[in-house]
Amino acid sequence: MMHPEDIKQLILAGMDCEHLELDGDGQHFAALVVSAEFVGKNRVQRQQRVYQTLKEKLATGELHALSFKTLTPEEWSAQRG
After folding, report:
1. CB of 63 within 8 A of CB of 57?
2. Is the pTM above the cut of 0.85?
3. pLDDT, tens digit, 9 for 90 and up, residues 49-80
4. What is the pairing mode between strands 66-71 and 19-24?
5. CATH number, domain at 48?
6. Domain carrying residue 43
7. φ, ψ for residue 37 (rounded to 5)?
């Protein structure tokens, strides 16, 4: 079983994040990933980028249920008001 902090560290090791929130119960996880890497990318490309950082854990089945929201720093700032 994976811990949210383990997944967070994998994402942070694989890409530059301005902000990252991750929560989960060991089986299902939800993340908010804010990165300048998402500028100019559509939603699918953004998701692919995050999945790239987790591909080993996904391939082994150690991680299988992750939902996430991907935002650029500007989008995140606008949402926070």
Report:
1. yes
2. yes
3. 999 999 999 999 898 889 999 999 999 999 98
4. unpaired
5. 3.30.300.90
6. 4-80
7. -60, -20
Q: 21 is written with which tokens?
A: 């929130």
How far is the CA of 9 from the CAs of 2, 19, 37, 54, in angstroms?
Answer: 11, 12, 17, 10
Please list, in sequence order, all residues whose beta carbon lies within 8 angstroms of the beta carbon of residue 17, skipping any fewer than 6 positions away. Answer: 11, 33, 34, 35
- Computed on alpha carbons and rounded to an integer, the radius of gyration of the chain in Å comes to 12
Question: Has residue 7 got a pLDDT over 80?
Answer: yes
Percent of the chain exceeding pLDDT 70 equals 100
Please state, in angstroms and rounded to a whole number, the distance separating the CA atoms of residues 39 and 36: 6
Distance CA 69, CA 60 (A): 23
How many Å from the N-terminal Cα to the C-terminal Cα in the chain? 36
pLDDT tens track for 31-48? 999 999 999 999 999 999
